[in-house]
Design goal:
Strand content: 15-25%
Shape: elongated
Largest sheet: 4 strands, mixed
Order of helices and strands: EHEEHEEEEHEHEHEEHHEHH
Number of domains: 2
Number of helices: 9
Distance between the termini: 30 Å
Length: about 290
């Protein structure tokens, strides 16, 4: 089972191409959430679009949208350039990850020790001193299931702190401590962090914690063991491609009642092959090293 991300996001910003004809060609859209500015919007468009030259963005009144801190307003936005194409880069299919296994124990412990709080909601784990981490989870920024892609693209070059086990992908620098529900939303790209605009927290859907538009935990940003901006930039890119391109990527169900035909539901849903691959490698990679 999956849900339509576009329907859930209730888009009130629509992006159109008016480069080749008088007919507007839809390129995508998004739901405005608190804190999204024109600068954030332009950063998203830089990811979404492939153009021959620098493009111009206008609102429905013909005013040019510049990279400034003005709040993004609802409405129709037109992109103009000699040639405009939607980025066809494949978005990494991702669902809520598991958080246990021998390969990630050191990763989990290091993230807990560094953060001691949810770095998004800023909620401190007051029971850390008795080693009770109920509702707090160590989340990977780059998913463990795609370790082969991590190695192929040499993303390990961004890591300066090697973990005691699990390979560079399990470095504390590839992790964040999050409340459990925010971990699920992080893995589903429901929100991300824009490192190029003050490490702002950008939500693409409902924000139950009311943190959209705030910034990442200052304690984390000042920590020498913090994640590199390149990893935040990678996650933000995935979130943009998943949420604002075309009809957007599906949101996959992960809460299956007892007795459910889990495999049958996955195979009957969209992107079944990618979903099965993620589920398989995510579970394996938490217990054994995937080469």
């Amino acid at each position: 089972m999956s849900r339509n991300r576009r329907g859930l996001l209730l888009r009130d910003v629509n992006i159109w191409d008016l480069s080749d004809s008088e007919d507007r060609i839809p390129l995508g859209g998004l739901r405005r959430t608190p804190g999204i500015t024109n600068k954030d919007f332009r950063h998203m468009l830089d990811i979404l679009l492939v153009t021959s030259v620098d493009f111009v963005v206008q609102n429905e009144h013909g005013d040019e949208i510049l990279q400034n801190d003005e709040p993004l307003l609802p409405g129709d936005y037109t992109v103009m350039a000699d040639k405009v194409e939607v980025n066809n880069e494949i978005a990494y299919t991702r669902v809520a990850s598991i958080t246990t296994g021998s390969q990630v124990q050191a990763f989990r412990d290091a993230v807990r020790a560094r953060d001691n709080r949810c770095v998004i909601s800023k909620v401190v784990n007051v029971d850390a001193e008795v080693d009770d981490w109920t509702s707090f989870e160590a989340a990977h920024i780059f998913p463990l299931a795609y370790e082969s892609q991590w190695n192929m693209n040499n993303y390990g070059r961004w890591i300066t702190i090697d973990p005691p086990q699990g390979g560079e992908i399990n470095s504390v620098q590839n992790g964040l401590l999050l409340r459990s529900h925010l971990h699920q939303e992080w893995d589903q790209y429901r929100f991300s962090i824009n490192p190029d605009n003050g490490h702002k927290i950008i939500f693409f859907g409902a924000d139950l914690d009311q943190v959209a538009g705030s910034t990442l935990d200052r304690q984390l940003l000042d920590d020498p063991c913090r994640p590199p901006d390149s990893l935040f930039r990678w996650h933000f890119r995935q979130a943009v491609l998943s949420n604002i391109r075309g009809a957007a990527e599906p949101i996959f169900e992960h809460d299956f009642p007892p007795g459910s035909d889990i495999m049958g539901e996955i195979l009957a849903g969209p992107k079944a092959g990618q979903r099965m691959e993620f589920e398989l490698f995510d579970r394996l990679a938490h217990h054994v090293k995937i080469v």
